[in-house]
Design a protein that fits this description.
Layout (H helix, E strand, L loop, with lengths): L6 E2 L2 E2 L8 H10 L6 H22 L6 H9 L1 H19 L1
Antiparallel strand pairs: 1-2
Helix pairs in contact: 1-2, 2-3
Length: about 90
């Protein structure tokens, strides 16, 4: 989801029109929730982990906690979640 970040074997955690953690933190601060970039990263990864947990639960897959963290940080997983959320948002508009 981020423009900059840790490089994974499959690339950086990025979506084409993604924003970086500083941009997220700045936006949150502007709307009244003081936040720095590392907090923004932690919140994003925490939410991505919840998505990962929901996916593996849906399919009844047993996954160790460390693997869930790796899935949550995966650029492909984050991109897939972003696309899914965009599709849901578009469907709600029509």
């Amino acid at each position: 989801m981020m423009k900059k970040g840790k490089k994974f074997e499959s690339g950086y955690a990025t979506v084409d029109d993604g924003v970086n953690y500083r941009d997220i933190a700045d936006t949150m601060t502007e709307i009244g929730y003081r936040m720095n970039h590392s907090s923004a990263r932690n919140y994003v990864l925490r939410v991505m982990r919840k998505f990962a947990e929901a996916v593996v639960d849906q399919y009844g897959i047993e996954v160790p906690s460390s693997s869930l963290d790796s899935i949550a940080r995966s650029p492909m997983f984050q991109s897939g979640i972003a696309e899914l959320l965009q599709d849901i948002e578009c469907a709600r508009k029509y």
